[in-house]
Amino acid sequence: MSIKQRVESLIEAIESDKSEEKIKVRKKLMIKNLLESSLKYVHIVVIQGVEMQLDDGAGNRQRLQELASIDENRSRTHDSLISVLNAVNRMCAQYELAPIYQGKDNRRDIGDFALEIMEEYFRERL
Fold first, then answer.
1. CA-CA distance, 2 to 100, in Å (whole number)?
2. Sequence-separated (6 or more) residues with CB below 8 Å from residue 101
3. What does the pLDDT read at residue 29?
4. What does the alpha-carbon distance between residue 52 and residue 66 come to, in Å, rounded to a whole number?
5. What is the pLDDT of residues 28-71, one digit of tens each?
6. Dihedral pair phi/psi, residue 101, rounded to 5°
7. Cα–Cα distance, 50 to 32 (Å, whole number)
8. Which residues contact 7 (CB under 8 A, 6 or more apart)?
9. Domains of the chain
10. pTM of the model
């Protein structure tokens, strides 16, 4: 089952449960947050890569601080992605559905999964 299909199954389960509407909205927002966190993480990884390519290697203090700031931002974004992914996977378990992320509990693998999400949504764009 594709990532989008697992997301769709979760949305359908949320829609059909007997929770209050505002709880359903919050649950669906969590799914949206997962997709947005994935996009943010992929974006910051690309920006970090470009900035490192553009670095002249001189090691001036300001440039090193800029690169460190980008790395801190990437790390925080990654932590956020992991947190929301774990929350969405717990929600899947509550509905007895396959988890959205089925890989190892490994930071790099989860980061790679963010790219997989973006690739799948991009491939199937309207």
1. 9
2. 85, 88, 89, 110, 113
3. 98
4. 10
5. 999 999 999 999 999 999 999 999 888 877 778 888 899 899 99
6. -100, 125
7. 27
8. 31, 100
9. 3-123 (1.10.287)
10. 0.90
